[in-house]
Amino acid sequence: MYKRISLIIALALLLLVAAPVQAKPNADTTIVAVNKNESVTVALENFPSNETYYVYMNYNGTYGVNGYLVSKLTTNSGGTILAEFPIPAGLVNEGIINIRFQSLSGKSVWWNWFYNETSAYNPYPSSGSSEPTYNRRNAGTPWFTVTSVVKGVSISGTTSNFPENERIAIFVKDGAMDDENWVEVSGFETSGGGVINVTFSIPSSLKYKEKIAYKFFGLKVNYPIFYSLVNNWNYP
Question: How far apart are CA 42 and CA 31, in angstroms?
């Protein structure tokens, strides 16, 4: 009997060690916005700090398991970040897509799903409106809208809803998932927040890269305000 109990305890301990765990109990992911067949923006909140995650997408009902690898993301010291991810060509025109965040160790896993339909910017449709109520980013969500790209030279756009009186540093890197070499290229003060027109340069070392990743890092709050990718070609 003693041997049987010991064996049960040993098996239980083995399962505890081997089984993957989720992120922090109060961790969460929120679908902020969707550009149909192009990208999804997700807010990660209270994830483990300074942890690198693989981001997968797959068909509905798969939890993202064995899906398309679309990005690799490292959380900040607070585990909270807003990031935009491309929708893979293999999932174009899928109605619902599963997205999965899995740490390099495989022990921290989180997943969500979203309708593959373009978000409406206005989070409060008028009474009786037939507009969809899903995939809407909340009023006040920090955002950066790219208005122009000069291939290999610069990226321009407009911020909205950034924190007031914040010092922002702008970093860029090769959009390839295995590259973690961020380069600081510019910065600005938000003053009263709201709408700010920003142009930042593409370093010569990145001017021939297919995609450029960029992030706006709040120096006072010490975490990225916004993170995204842009194609390195002339736009519009």
Answer: 5
3-state secondary structure of 41: strand
Q: What is the end-to-end Cα distance of the chain in Å, rounded?
A: 75
Domains, the chain, in order of start with CATH, read: 21-115 (2.60.40.1930), 143-231 (2.60.40)
Q: Return the higher-pLDDT residue of 132 and 20.
A: 132
The tens digit of pLDDT for each residue in 18-66 reads 333 344 445 678 888 888 898 888 888 778 878 888 999 999 888 888 9
Amino acid at 52: T
* Summary mean pLDDT of the chain: 77
Q: Which two tokens stand for residue 63?
A: 């939890």
Measured in residues, the chain has a length of 236
Alpha-carbon distance values, 199 to 22, 88, 186 (Å): 39, 28, 9
